[in-house]
């Protein structure tokens, strides 16, 4: 009964980050959660300051759902980086004290 | 880790998002030994996703809410605690149980924080968070715990480094029964459906409508009661009369539902107290805010020469501080969750956790 699944639908993304440290943080934060469906495969890696994202799915519909969900998570990671990274918080603290 | 035990001030930031509340809290533990350490709440910020009357909160919308508010709530928590990042020892997050998508959204943010700040991450069992926060706030040393919320209904007692489940709901949680009945009556979900049922019930009580009473040994069942309450609500809307031939109101329904399901909870809690020989009851979880439940439980405990310990909405309802507190207790014993293992799980039983911080 078990037929081999094929993954004809794919999408490759290169997400640029300001530096390798941030690309690596995104990689580690985003690769932990497994795809909920066996119909989708995800592969993440970081090369220098670029997050490389490879999605493969059995149908375009599954691919769209999985990639949309990935973008939701990626947007959250970026917002946390922008607003809560150590240097940003320190700058905010200095600003509050001086101004 | 070795120097953590010598550190007299230990601080954790906790992130909670297993249901419709996003909470971030920061706790301080002071003192060198586990037994003599004191806990201080430095900040405890929460934002709730409230769905329109007649509807519940769906996982997708709730996760989107948590993602949208995470940074804002985190900044508020940091500002209120007035500390710098180097002072924080660890980041704690809710590993489970709860709704998958909301749990994961908060875990992604918690991981990012831990990585950016270079702090260890600690995965926390949500139920253990409630229990430990309840103990810390009330000072109840060895209570029987009634954990009642929208997703969980458990009677728990501690023995040999586990929180043992003595009785639990067999189908839906008690809070889910209340939430869904609020939907039937199209009562507001703001601030919480259970709170609005409680207020409405105070105006009822002319009649006690007959609902099934479903205690099965140490366990409870609530889905049949909900079905019957829904039927009675439909009967009422069609102009039907009560058992005394007089019309009855939504308030009478809320009153009858509360009296019936709370009596069931009191019964199984009393049996657990008799079994373990404890006279203290600690009520935790969102339904634990209900003052009628606290009153009924108090009457039972008083007859047994004991008392009931309860907290207010800041700590009863899901919050970040309880995750920070329970996470820091575990971290102080050397526990941490490697980033690559920092997954979430919808099912995570209370008794799976090794409670290393208690004797």
What's the quick description here?
Chain B: Its EC number is 2.3.1.234. The complex is a heterodimer of chains A (99) and B (359). Chain A has three helices and three strands.
Plain-language structure description:
The complex is a heterodimer of chains A (99) and B (359). With 99 residues, chain A is an alpha+beta fold. Chain A has a single domain, classed as TATA-Binding Protein (2-Layer Sandwich), CATH 3.30.310. Chain A contains three helices and three strands. In chain A, helix 1 crosses helix 2. The longest helix of chain A has 25 residues. Chain A is elongated. With 359 residues, chain B is an alpha/beta fold. Chain B folds into two domains: 168 residues, ATPase, nucleotide binding domain (Nucleotidyltransferase, domain 5, 2-Layer Sandwich), CATH 3.30.420.40; 175 residues, ATPase, nucleotide binding domain (Nucleotidyltransferase, domain 5, 2-Layer Sandwich), CATH 3.30.420. In chain B, the strands form three sheets. Chain B has a five-stranded mixed sheet with strand order 3-2-1-4-5, with helices on both faces. In chain B, helix 5 crosses helix 7 and helix 6 runs antiparallel to helix 7. The longest helix of chain B is centred in the last third of the chain and has 27 residues. The radius of gyration of chain B is 21 Å and the shape is globular. Chains A and B meet through helix 1, helix 2 and helix 3 of A and helix 1 and helix 2 of B.
């Amino acid at each position: 009964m078990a037929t081999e699944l094929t993954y004809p639908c794919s999408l490759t993304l290169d997400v640029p980050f300001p530096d390798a440290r941030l690309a690596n943080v995104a990689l580690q934060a985003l690769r932990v959660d497994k795809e909920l469906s066996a119909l989708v495969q995800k592969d993440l890696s970081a090369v220098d300051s670029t997050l490389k994202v490879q999605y493969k799915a059995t149908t375009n519909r599954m691919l769209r759902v999985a990639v949309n969900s990935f973008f939701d998570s990626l947007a959250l990671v970026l917002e946390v980086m922008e607003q809560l990274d150590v240097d940003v918080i320190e700058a905010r603290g200095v600003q509050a004290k001086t101004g | 880790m070795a120097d953590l035990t010598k550190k007299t001030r230990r601080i954790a930031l906790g992130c909670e998002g297993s249901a419709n509340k996003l909470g971030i809290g920061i706790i301080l533990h002071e003192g060198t030994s586990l037994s003599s350490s004191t806990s201080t709440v430095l900040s405890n910020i929460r934002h709730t996703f409230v769905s329109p009357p007649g509807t519940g909160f769906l996982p997708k919308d709730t996760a989107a809410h948590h993602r949208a508010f995470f940074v804002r709530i985190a900044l508020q928590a940091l500002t209120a605690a007035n500390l710098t990042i180097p002072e924080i020892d660890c980041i704690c997050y809710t590993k489970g149980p709860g709704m998958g998508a909301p749990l994961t959204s908060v875990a992604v943010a918690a991981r990012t924080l831990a990585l950016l700040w270079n702090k260890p991450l600690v995965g926390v069992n949500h139920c253990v968070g409630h229990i430990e926060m309840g103990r810390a706030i009330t000072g109840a040393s060895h209570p029987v715990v009634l954990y009642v919320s929208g997703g969980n209904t458990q009677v728990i007692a501690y023995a040999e480094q586990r929180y043992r489940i003595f009785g639990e709901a067999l189908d839906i949680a008690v809070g889910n029964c209340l939430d869904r009945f609020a939907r039937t009556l199209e009562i507001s979900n703001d601030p919480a459906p259970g709170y609005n049922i409680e207020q409405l019930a105070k105006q009822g009580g002319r009649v006690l409508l007959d609902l099934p009473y479903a205690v099965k040994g140490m366990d409870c069942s609530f889905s049949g009661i909900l079905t019957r309450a829904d039927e009675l609500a439909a009967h009422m809307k069609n102009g039907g009369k009560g058992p005394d031939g007089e019309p009855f109101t939504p308030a009478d329904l809320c009153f009858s539902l509360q009296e019936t399901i709370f009596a069931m909870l009191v019964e199984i809690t009393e049996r657990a107290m008799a079994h373990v020989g404890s006279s203290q009851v600690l009520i935790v979880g969102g339904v634990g805010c209900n003052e009628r439940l606290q009153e009924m439980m108090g009457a039972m405990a008083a007859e047994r020469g004991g008392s009931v310990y309860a907290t207010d909405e800041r700590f009863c309802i899901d919050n970040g501080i309880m995750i920070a507190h329970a996470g820091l207790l575990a971290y102080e014993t050397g526990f941490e969750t490697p980033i690559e293992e920092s997954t979430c799980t919808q099912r995570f039983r209370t008794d799976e956790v090794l409670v290393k911080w208690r004797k």
